[in-house]
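Reopening this one. Same input as before:
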Amino acid sequence: MERLHGVWLGVGAATYPTIEAARYRDELTFRPHAGDPITQVEQKTWRLRPDGTESLLHWEFGFIRQIEGATHEWINAQNNGRVEVMKGTISTAGERLILRFESVAFANDPRMREAARELTVVGDVLRYTMTMATEAHPTAVIHLEAELRRGG
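Same output, byte for byte:
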C-alpha cells in the first residue's frame, strides 16, 4: 500500500448513457494511518469547461481497511449524499500495484445497482476506471477513466 500513499493529480473523462460527457481535473489522496491497516482516501474532481473555467464536480471521503488477508473494504461518503461500501483486493504483478473493488452496499441513492473500481499504479502513474449500473441503465459500463501522476 505504501506505493499508493500520497497525492495524485491528473485529468479524467466521465461518460455514461444518461449524462453529457465531461472532462475533469482530479486530485486523489491516500494517507496512511500509523499503526493500523487503514488508509484515508479523499477524491475531489472539478469539471473542466471549454472556456477554461472549472467547478467542483464530485467529492468523496473514506477509508480503505484490511479486513482479512488480501481482502480489503473501501467505505466512502460522497457529496451527492451517497454512501458506498466496496470489497476487493490489493495485489502486485511485477511493477504493478492493482486495486480491484466491487460495491456490496449503497445507501441514500436508490438509483445505484452496482459499481466497480480498478486502480493500477506503475511508478509515479496511477490509472483508474470505474464502471457502474443504475436503474436507468442496468448494464454496467465504464463511467470514469483517468490517468494521474504523483504530485505535491
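So the earlier flakiness isn't reproducible anymore. For the record, The chain has one domain: 6-150.
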